[in-house]
Specification:
Length: about 240
């Protein structure tokens, strides 16, 4: 006769509806080995002397984006945009920079998209640019304002036919019933965009992030990274170096 010890719950029992977790199966091990084997900055990186940086961040940002493009970084104007909802729950996505000028960093979307809804209740955001070919990143954060309908329309109609077609499809972030539904809407939108290049899209909104902080990060193969942070305070930009 076998002994059957009394049942005891494990001290950290997972909830019944928690997903199964396999701590060390072959697939997990292979994934970890893949991560550890990936090379980082396996190229000669440019140097950056913060003593030569301009008094304001905009000229340096424009220079770095131009140098990233010249170094062959694909789509160097793509960036990560982070927003938060009314409860402070963050969300993040990648989109394109439309401009960067004395007002701030420009991007656009539909007012009814997730980012548009979140900016309506929490009009602050953060941007992140990463250019691996030169080991550089730029972080920007501050309050966001929505441009008026005329400026928003002008922003859209300066862009490509494909951008207009995508905007005409609309319904961004809504649940999609099927790929066929999207195909029909996209085909109709492309047809209209080709024949009506000034077609209005009332929900299209240009947003401008007014920077309060802009950080420039230059990677270094010895991990002696240079981090130059600009902070806007008392009507002027102040600079400070940060530990990597």
């Amino acid at each position: 006769m076998s002994d059957h010890p009394a049942h005891q719950d494990p001290p950290d029992a997972a909830p019944a509806d928690a997903p199964a977790h396999h701590s060390d199966d072959a697939e997990s091990q292979a994934f970890r080995e893949l991560l550890r084997g990936l090379r980082v900055w396996d190229v000669e990186l440019p140097s950056f002397d913060p003593a030569t940086a301009p008094a304001e961040p905009l000229p340096l940002f424009r220079q770095w984006l131009r140098e990233a493009a010249e170094a062959g970084v694909p789509e160097p104007h793509t960036m990560t945009l982070a927003t938060a909802d009314a409860d402070g729950v963050p969300s993040v996505r990648t989109l394109m920079l439309h401009d960067a000028d004395e007002r701030g960093w420009h991007f656009a979307s539909h007012r009814g998209s997730r980012k548009g809804r979140e900016l309506a209740v929490r009009p602050r955001a953060a941007l992140g640019f990463y250019w691996p070919a030169v080991g550089r990143q730029v972080r920007v954060h501050g309050p966001v304002t929505a441009a008026g309908p005329e400026e928003s329309a002008a922003d859209l109609h300066r862009r490509s036919t494909g951008a207009l077609a995508a905007a005409l499809v609309g319904r961004q972030s809504e649940v999609l019933g099927s790929a066929e539904e999207l195909a029909r809407a996209s085909e109709a939108a492309w047809e209209r965009a080709r024949h009506e290049p000034e077609a209005p899209v009332p929900s299209w909104t240009l947003y401008v992030l007014h920077p309060e902080e802009v950080e420039f990060f230059q990677g270094d193969a010895q991990r002696r990274h240079v981090r130059l942070n600009y902070r806007y305070e008392n009507g002027r930009w102040a600079q400070e170096l940060l530990w990597p």
